[in-house]
Amino acid sequence: MKTEAVENKTENLRLKKIIVYFILLALVFSSAMMVVFQVFEYRHDYRQLSGFMRDRDDLNAEWGRLLIEQQTFGATAQIGTRAVTQLRMYSPPAAQTVVISLPATTQDKK
């Protein structure tokens, strides 16, 4: 009777160890799968971030070009305004305009 009880206890202990090992194995496997999934998500997010950063750099370059263009157009108007206000320049009326034409050369006659 004692041997049966001891064998039964050892059998139960062995069964518990097997169950614990399978549970630990399942936990290790699920942990490994989660690591793989997290690495995949990280790479996906990093790729997306790189794309957004490239777009940001392209937009910054375009913004710089637009600022230069705006300054160029602004400078032309500013030069005209300063010529009128500071130098008192104006476009002459037609009565004060003289057109000078050059004499025709021999090449122009052909």
Automatic annotation (TrEMBL):
Going by the UniProt record, its keywords in alphabetical order are: Cell cycle, Cell division, Cell inner membrane, Cell membrane, Membrane, Transmembrane, Transmembrane helix
Query: What's in the GO CC field?
Result: cell division site; plasma membrane
Q: Which residues cross the membrane?
A: 18-40
Q: Name one GO biological process term.
A: FtsZ-dependent cytokinesis
Where is it mainly found? membrane
Enumerate the subcellular locations listed in this protein's record, separating them with semicolons.
Answer: Cell inner membrane; Cell membrane
Q: By its UniProt entry, which InterPro entries does this protein fall under?
A: Cell_div_FtsL (IPR011922)
Topology relative to the lipid bilayer, per the entry, is: Single-pass type II membrane protein
Name of one Pfam family that matches:
FtsL
Q: How does it assemble?
A: Part of a complex composed of FtsB, FtsL and FtsQ.
Role played: Essential cell division protein. May link together the upstream cell division proteins, which are predominantly cytoplasmic, with the downstream cell division proteins, which are predominantly periplasmic.
Q: Which family, according to UniProt?
A: Belongs to the FtsL family.
Listed name of the protein: Cell division protein FtsL
Query: To which species is this protein native?
Result: Acinetobacter chinensis
